Amino acid sequence: VLGRHQYLVLADGRFGPETSKTANSAIRYLPERVRGVIEPRSSGRTVQEILGFGGNIPIVSTVADGLALNPTALLIGIAPTGGQLPESWRPALKTAIHAGLDIVSGLHFHLADDTEISMLARAHGVQLLDLRHPPGNLPIGTGKARLVEPTVVLTVGTDCNIGKMTAALQLRSALVARGRRVGFAATGQTGILIEGWGIAVDAVVADFVAGAAERLVLQAAEGNEIVLVEGQGSLIHPGYSGVTLGLLHGAMPSAMILCHQPTRTTVSGGGGAYEWVRLPALGEAIRRYEDAMAHFRESRVVGVALNTYDLGEDQAREAVARAAEETGLPAADPVRHDPAPLVDAILRQARSDERKAV
Amino acid sequence: VLGRHQYLVLADGRFGPETSKTANSAIRYLPERVRGVIEPRSSGRTVQEILGFGGNIPIVSTVADGLALNPTALLIGIAPTGGQLPESWRPALKTAIHAGLDIVSGLHFHLADDTEISMLARAHGVQLLDLRHPPGNLPIGTGKARLVEPTVVLTVGTDCNIGKMTAALQLRSALVARGRRVGFAATGQTGILIEGWGIAVDAVVADFVAGAAERLVLQAAEGNEIVLVEGQGSLIHPGYSGVTLGLLHGAMPSAMILCHQPTRTTVSGGGGAYEWVRLPALGEAIRRYEDAMAHFRESRVVGVALNTYDLGEDQAREAVARAAEETGLPAADPVRHDPAPLVDAILRQARSDERKAV
């Protein structure tokens, strides 16, 4: 179902480079399937003007305005902290359902649990697609993902919402372009939207996070040489660190790519609730992730993916050079520049894994 | 409701010192409320003969046999890996419901979601009490538990099911005996059974584990000088490490007590699925827990609680002495011996916290 939809994307009041992750990823990776974005503050402008990519996709004020663009579904493109359904969105959802649009949501809140929305959906014969709704039969993790044949690479980060999914998707494209068979394990609502399958590990009952990640890796490994696993959260995030560690120990990666935004100095999000937590230096972050794996297997951070969208070109190149020097690792902004240094690092890891297996 | 029940405890086929945690804790901490245990392999014997404590509580073969003991509820006293309802238990549950007993369960599986069981319960006017069912309105953790006035002590472990709850409960009693006002934050089904309140953090949606722990600590802090938080899992458990880290970062303890069983060498449970994971040395475990907190606040392991139930008295004393020497910390088996060394360590921490606050 997800693969056929033409989206009108709800980003009401929060459309921007850092505040509308799901919307932005749909625009970056499924541009031919995004008909328009709802953001009253910017209506009449194009997505390109706001994000710096996305071309002429139009921005409109309301669902009603967007219907002229012939969407087949309303995609909820922003994720309020806590994932509940803001009451202010209800009219937009109702208008969309009345117009026959399916609703695609990545909220923690399951739309199907809202009596009004679910009854209206049934009455109008539209589907409510909850990207975050996990399967019901997940196993407890046992660590067996460490035994799969492909090289498993997890993107990890110094913070939430810093580019872990984007780095993984960019690396996937580049590896595919080099003729590699690559599986992608989507672990969040946006990755699932783009890939068409996956499990939102942060929406799983806590005991089953590692088991969910393990199942994703085993599935993505089939017939592939390399598995890229979309990372979540950060080991030093006071709210989400548990998801990060569960995902790490479920995925049991052979190697990791560390994602960071050079201009960010404290943990973001939560309406400023995390400003007391400084982001770790790259070296400290690398040590933490490698140490968290060391009891199970050697797993090294083999490259640094920087998110430099908010820097000028010179500053971006400088930041990349500094990260490489600071860590002694290949570094790149895989969106802005050629991800080749990171791709090479992953292929070196794959060759080394192969040698060990022989 | 929980506080009034007289339990018949289902431990079918798994009643023993290491295999029936909920049953054993009910017997240890609520002995006056356990009427009998169902375990066909040992029927006719007493609980004391099997566990080494519990006195003359009788063991019977079936629910039907146990009804003569006048229970008011059937307590599911064992937890299969994964927490589903084994089909073989269904007849016992049905017999209990027919006899008018409430059912108290700590399974992940919600009895209320089983059509047959829930309809039967309704027909007979009995309650299905799911200890693991979390509240629906949990926050995302923000780290604010670090700011509460009481000294917060979390029990952490080298493995699951190794004595973290028991150590916390023993320390609570000993601190209360010294006239301290102590709050207890129960984080698992057994702790909740004993305390009458709490949240099973492993049953919470993963994004909310830290938030649940934070809420428990804030609540347990009210009017108290010391908060003891029941730990869960272990940072090196391939299945449950995420719960452990989320709980740690939600609780933001001032200090930790490390729990260990000297005879255990590899991660237990899961039908042997974890035998490839050696338990860390005490020093490595201490380093991991302290390091996981270091980015947020200094939090030290201030004592080691050993579980020596499977050692002779001489060996037990030797193990305690060795743990103290190896770590340079106070050590004790708080069940077998006087927990004074650990109590003193917690009180030293409380005095030090007070000095810092002044």
Q: Residue share in helices of chain A?
A: 25-40%
Give the SSE order of chain A as H and E letters.
Answer: EHEHEHEHEHEEHEHHEHEHEHEH
Our count of helices of chain A gives: 12
Shape of chain A: globular
* Chain pair sharing the greatest interface: A-B, 47 and 47 residues
Integer average pLDDT of chain A: 95
Q: In terms of quaternary structure, what is this?
A: homodimer
State the end-to-end distance of chain A: 42 Å
Total E-strand runs of chain A: 12
Runs of chain A in which pLDDT lies below 50 for 5 or more consecutive residues are none
Gyration radius of chain A, rounded:
20 Å
Q: Biggest sheet of chain A, in brief?
A: 6 strands, parallel
Bin the strand percentage of chain A: 5-15%
- Spatial ordering of strands, largest sheet of chain A: 3-2-1-4-5-6
**Classification by helices and strands of chain A:** alpha/beta
Describe this protein with a few key phrases:
6-stranded parallel beta sheet, homodimer, 15% strand, 358 residues, 12 helices, alpha/beta
